[in-house]
Amino acid sequence: MDILNKITIGMMPVVPKPIVGRVASRYIAGEKLSDAVKVIKSLHELGAVATIDLLGENSSDPDHVRKAAGTYMEMLDIIEAEKLDSNVSVKPTHLGLKIDYDFCREQITAIAAHAAEYGNFVRIDMEDHTCTDDTIRLYQEIHDQYDNVGLVLQAYLHRTINDIQPLMKMKANLRLCKGIYIEPRRICYRNRNIVIRNYALLLEELLKAGCYVGIATHCEETIWHARRIIYQLGLKRDQYEFQMLLGVQEQLRRSLIDEGHKMRVYVPFGDEWYPYSTRRLKENPSIAGHIMRDFFGSSRGDGKR
Length: 305
Ligand SMILES: Cc1cc2nc3c(=O)[nH]c(=O)nc-3n(C[C@H](O)[C@H](O)[C@H](O)COP(=O)(O)OP(=O)(O)OC[C@H]3O[C@@H](n4cnc5c(N)ncnc54)[C@H](O)[C@@H]3O)c2cc1C
Description:
- It is a single chain.
- The protein has 12 helices and 8 strands.
- By secondary structure, it is α/β, with parallel strands linked by helices.
- It has an 8-stranded parallel barrel with strand order 1-2-3-4-5-6-7-8, surrounded by 6 helices.
- The chain is globular, with a radius of gyration of 19 Å.
- The two termini are 27 Å apart.
């Protein structure tokens, strides 16, 4: 990361919210469910399916959690009514994990039960390392009742090679990603090449074991490994899917769709867009550069924007 990007990231707290909003708007469908529906319809026209995420994390108020769970129910109803090809992604801390484990499990179980009525599916996102054990346990316990749930694993964690052992036995439905949180050095790989190699190792093990994997990446090298493994194992198109975040690497997304791979796009929406946006921007400093230009452009009042 160059010095300019470091400065830009350091400045994030003082950048006016509307500027963050403008830059981040390509990564977020909007504030309302109807905004997400519109985006999903346009993705369908491009040949992609979706997973919808109601933005929010680290809830501390049980009423807030119940409201979020209610919105998930509504999302499933709308997906069905509008005949969208989309499932939903949930974050355990948004649904009360930091309040109480059982309370959180009840919420996600209820969402899975409602999804099951429609033959739909619930993906449990993976958050930072303080949630990993509980999230795997949530997945396993809910899966005992409803098999329309899936889990996310992170290739940057040392532990993931061990975590996949029981999951391979149950042929779990998994999304494999690199991992987005800034984790302590002792538990994760920091070297980019090692993370890519570990991703490839995990992906190969999971696909060999017959797990359905959502290959969640925008990284060309990781996608090459995925193509190699798919080719070497002679997999059919319905044994895996690629997944990308809304607004990221759209040309690479196009090329995978054109080749006939299934592509699912993660569509976040909701009024809690600000923390999500700043995390996206911190993760990809080249986008933060746009903020810098917007910031100085508008404060100079040079009439460019
Ligand atoms: C569908 C999906 C779901 C995810 N779910 C989770 C989850 O539950 N838990 C979790 O920890 N992580 C999740 N992630 C994030 C993931 O862990 C990575 O942090 C992220 O995908 C970047 O890794 P990469 O493999 O794309 O490679 P990178 O090498 O990081 O990125 C490749 C290129 O893609 C572009 N790019 C990548 N990420 C972004 C971004 N956020 N914004 C703008 N441009 C970007 C950049 O141009 C970059 O050069 C998810 C990712 C996807 C695609």
